[in-house]
Every structure is written in C-alpha cells, then in structure tokens.
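DM from R.C. (forwarded with permission)

"hey, sorry to bug you on a friday — could you get me a structure for this? deadline for the figure draft is monday and I only need the backbone to look sensible"
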Amino acid sequence: MRKFGKKKKQDLIANSKKWQDFQKYALQEEMTDFRYLTKDRLVQETRFGDKLSVIVNFANSTKMIKHQKLAPLTAKINNNGKSVVVSVSQKIGD
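My reply, with the result:
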C-alpha cells in the first residue's frame, strides 16, 4: 500500500469533498448521455438528467474543450449552472 504524505492526504480529502455533490446528484439521476470528445477518447463527457454533467480529461496534456482549456487529469463538473474543476486521482495505467 502506498504511503501518502500529509499534503497529499489533505489534497485527497479536499478533492473527495468536491466530488461529494456530484456523486449525490448522479445517484439520483439516470445517465442520459456519454460521449468521447476527442479522437483519442481520453476526454469524455457524461450527462445525468438535464442539469448534471462531467467532462474528464484523462490525457497527459491540456485539451481545448467547448472553448475552454481543461488541464491534464482533471474533471469539470457542471451542476445546475455551477462548475467546479477537480483532480482525477491517477493516470490510466498507474
């Protein structure tokens, strides 16, 4: 099992709190859409109902998505008009 430093642990806790609202609402809605936004399939969008969506960049580079930059290994959660960007915990293959 990996050991986490104090800073990494604090980041993990803060990040999990940002995901809590998304998880709460996603569990209440049916998944209504899923699509790949890039040819390499590393940027994906999932929609739940008409007010909740998440765009995730699994790539190791910044991607321009819907006229906005999305940093590597991040997700943009859109919930009823409010957006938050959170970290994706690991690269694919790690």
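R.C.: lifesaver. The beta strands are 31-36, 43-48, 52-57, 63-65, 68-70, 74-79, 82-87.
me: no worries. The chain has a mean pLDDT of 83.
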